[in-house]
């Protein structure tokens, strides 16, 4: 019993000694003294995308690529034409147009109305190179002209000519030029119509012209109209403005490449092109005219007037000699109807103009005509076009 009491006393003594130590230690671990380590988010390895290096190459596909390539190839061969005239003793710029390199001899095609009466001509290339140019020749009947510049830039190569027979309405085309002096401008459109007849700078007309909705404005004159292969199919020359503005209304006209092929080589060689002339005025047959004349054909070129002392007058062709009223309209009748030339069918007046345009003065053609219900063959010796219809 004494031994158990002794153990109990030792136990109590040990507890008493440990309790103050524990209490003392707890003073330093109260919540006020504890500094917690904030939770760290899990480490996540994020792969930040590195932007690709920038290059000067732009990825272009499809038709855009065709246009970009065409412009790169063609634009160095298209020039800005500046015309100077003397005013009050000073040589001043009075007009601008466009043109394109025709051959390796420095011959450049433009419009006659761009350089007509110029005292000095300069051509500016896309690289900024400026060259003096001399007038080689001009043809007011086709509104075409050639100027020549020396030492062309290396990239100013001759542009290839296209083929009229390959053209179709709806085909995409491109015009490159300097509208309003904005050099190197490309516009795109389609062929809106073929076979248009447009006025020349003379009393005559330019047949087989191309109508397009590619934007053509002042300054585009003389520049090329191109197919998507980069071939010249026409020379931009005129726009329809409705008489209220100088800007394009969606109707422009280009001198056809067939006329370019015909005229430009002669301008380069001789400075002039000699046009053949039949000496008539007229138009295509129309249903009212067919009804008024009571004829059996509905296609052909109708002769409304035969120019006095001209080749057709000498051959005995006849123009209108009477007027009849049909459905409230006065219609001139009695003229010959040309249905064929040298055995080739003539369906429109334009067919006749184009055929004659490809001939030379002094050549003879054989006309098949309808007169008073009878078919006749009449030979006509062509002559050179006069400067005025008043002086054949």
Structural notes for this entry:
- There is one protein chain.
- With 392 residues, this protein is of the alpha+beta class.
- The chain folds into three domains: 63-149, Trypsin-like serine proteases (Thrombin, subunit H, Beta Barrel); 164-270, Thrombin, subunit H, CATH 2.40.10.10; 276-384, PDZ domain (Pdz3 Domain, Roll).
- It contains seven helices and 22 strands.
- It has helices at residues 2-26, 63-74, 112-115, 257-270, 287-293, 311-315, 349-357; strands spanning 78-87, 90-101, 107-111, 120-124, 130-139, 144-149, 172-177, 185-199, 205-212, 224-226, 232-239, 252-256, 276-277, 280-284, 301-306, 322-326, 329-333, 337-341, 344-345, 364-371, 374-381, 383-384.
- The strands form five sheets. Strands 1-2-3-6-5-4 form a six-stranded antiparallel beta barrel. The chain has a six-stranded antiparallel β-barrel with strand order 7-8-9-12-11-10.
- Strand 8 and strand 9 (205-212) form a beta hairpin.
- The longest helix is centred in the first third of the chain and has 25 residues, at 2-26.
- It is elongated, with a radius of gyration of 43 Å.
- The N and C termini lie far apart (166 Å).
CATH superfamily of the largest domain: PDZ domain
CATH C-level name of the largest domain: Mainly Beta
Strand/helix succession: HHEEEHEEEEEEEEEHEEHEHEEEEHEEE
Which architecture of the largest domain would the CATH scheme give at its second level?
Answer: Roll
| Low-pLDDT ranges | 1-48
Largest sheet: 6 strands, antiparallel, barrel
| Fraction of residues in β-strands | 35-45%
Structural class: alpha+beta
What is the number of beta strands?
A: 22
Instruction: Enumerate how many helices there are, as a single number.
Output: 7
The helix content is 10-25%
């Amino acid at each position: 019993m004494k031994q158990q009491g002794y153990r109990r006393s030792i136990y109590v003594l040990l507890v008493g000694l440990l309790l103050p130590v524990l209490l003392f230690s707890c003073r330093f671990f109260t919540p006020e003294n504890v500094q917690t380590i904030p939770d760290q988010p899990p480490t996540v390895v994020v792969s930040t995308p590195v932007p690709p290096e920038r290059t000067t190459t732009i990825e272009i596909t499809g038709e855009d690529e065709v246009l970009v390539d065409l412009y790169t190839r063609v634009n160095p061969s298209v020039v800005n034409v500046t015309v100077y005239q003397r005013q009050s003793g000073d040589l001043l710029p009075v007009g601008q147009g466009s043109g394109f390199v025709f051959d390796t001899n420095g011959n450049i095609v433009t419009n006659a109305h761009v350089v007509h009466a110029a005292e000095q001509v300069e051509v500016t290339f896309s690289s900024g190179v400026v060259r003096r140019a001399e007038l080689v020749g001009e043809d007011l009947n086709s509104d075409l002209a050639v100027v020549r510049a020396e030492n062309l830039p290396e990239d100013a190569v001759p542009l290839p000519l296209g083929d009229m027979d390959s053209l179709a309405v709806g085909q995409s085309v491109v015009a490159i030029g300097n509208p309003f002096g904005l050099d190197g401008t490309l516009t795109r459109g389609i062929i809106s119509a073929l076979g248009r007849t447009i006025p020349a700078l003379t009393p005559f007309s330019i047949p087989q012209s191309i109508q397009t909705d590619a934007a053509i404005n002042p300054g585009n004159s003389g520049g090329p109209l191109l197919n998507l292969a980069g071939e010249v199919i026409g020379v931009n020359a005129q726009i329809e403005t409705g008489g209220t503005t100088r800007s394009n209304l969606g109707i422009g006209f280009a001198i056809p490449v067939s006329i370019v092929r015909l005229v430009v080589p002669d301008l380069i060689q001789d400075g002039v092109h000699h046009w053949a002339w039949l000496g008539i005025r007229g138009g295509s047959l129309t249903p009212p005219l067919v009804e008024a004349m009571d004829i059996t054909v509905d296609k052909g070129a109708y002769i409304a007037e035969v120019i006095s002392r001209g080749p057709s007058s000498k051959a005995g062709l006849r123009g209108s000699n009477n007027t009849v009223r049909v459905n409230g309209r006065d219609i001139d009748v009695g003229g010959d109807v040309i249905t064929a030339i040298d055995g080739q069918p003539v369906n429109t007046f334009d067919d006749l103009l184009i055929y004659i345009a490809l001939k030379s003065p002094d050549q003879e053609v054989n006309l098949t005509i309808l007169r008073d219900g009878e078919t006749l063959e009449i030979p006509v010796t062509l002559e050179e076009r006069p400067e005025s219809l008043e002086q054949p």
